[in-house]
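re the bet — no i am not wrong, look at it urself. input seq straight from the record:
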Amino acid sequence: MKIEIPMFQDVWMDNGVEHLYRILKDTNDVKTNLLNDKLEFEIINKENFIKSFIKNIEEKRDSVIFVEEKNKETGERRNIKKDFVLIQYGKKVEGRNVLKEKIYLNPEERITEIFDIINKKGKNKCILCGKTYQKKVDNLKQAVYPLVTKIKSLSGIRSLREQYIELCPLCYLIGTLEWCDEGIIYRVFPNSHSLVLLPRVYDFKKLNESKSKWINTVLTGERFSNIKVSKNEEGVEWTSGKFSTLLCFYEKFFNWICLEEEGLMSFESSKNEICKDWTYIDIPWGLVKNIKFEKLDIGNNVLNVFYELIKNEKYLYGDFIRKILYLRKTPKGTTIDNELTNQTRENLSRYFLMDDFQKFSHAFIPSKKGRIVINKESRDVLESLVYLWRLQKMGFEKGDLETIKSVGNIVAEVSTKSIGLLYRLDKTRSIDEFWNSLREISRKMIALENPVKVKSIDRVIEMINENEENWEEIKNLLVIYSCIYYYIKTFK
């Protein structure tokens, strides 16, 4: 029996085909051939193949979809389905949780049924692959393809009854098995939502090469998160959202795979190893699973900056994003605001990955709610980041960053008397407004108890005159360091 599966150009199904290939590679009595645009496999002995295939599915079900947890009250161990998996529980068997979906509940019967009819043509046309088939084994549902929903503003497909019942056995197999793919990146926020990140790569061989590298090296299998804290130790990262999760993943991949396991790879080689395009799936908590999805495409400029940072042992996520705190004052004293801390970490991750330096700088602006706290080690990482990300490409030296920091210190000192000056600097939208803002700051300097030399401001003016088209970049750098020094000067 020979079966050929061409590329779907669909992120869930294409990842499902790549995952099916990895299962088949560990299955007896089947020959596999993964090409750039299709998967081919030939079953040699159907009976032996089905037995081996079923065993692999059961093992992956129990080790990937389920996790073992200890009941804190009774001490009893129980198997719990990972919260992002859109398959319902069935009735417990011998005190153990089981999945209601037949391919996991009774895999022998369902797999045998599928491979008895998988190559038979008929008059029905599958809604996912477009091929004709003789007989279905189930309808299209979220257990097969999570993007289906009854909500018309999303996919609305399940409201079209005539279409969503037309699902071929092969697409059912591919879709349902994708839930036990070890290469899925996920982060679960209990009682809120789950996020899933899927690589969007329209080349099966490249997709397989990339996922095979990060499985077991970067990822593990705990319930709420699966990005390892350390390569050789237990524990997972508790990221704040989709962007910090992706940033954290990239950092581990570059560091552990491109710069360790594979040797000191060049950026061009590393770029070919990692995925730049992703689809993010948001799965809400509760019974109604009207999920949302979004494409995240990361540019080469950002990846290059990230690569250079890690090569120089500067860890943007581990030593900067993860260590940022948002403090606020209360009648009982200063406290960490966990919600705003996570929001700040996520925003900074987002603006870096989306290459939006203006919004990145704006995230540092003081708020009535409180302010960001950044330790010295994190400031060192930030310094390397802004130099590589912005100043270097404008042709400036590292000494020019010291000049900007010096002027930022001046702005901070002036802003302790009038915070409106810092807000006005951040809001400037033209070079004329920027000059006006600098002039006002210079006038305020005269009233300082310890007047600051104007040499640094003169150099900043020269930098802007040399790169007038990039005046906003310099302004944004000033905003960042003005805010950092303002926090140091005012928050006690």
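see?? Residues 182-355 form one domain. told u. also The first helix runs from residue 11 to 25. so pay up
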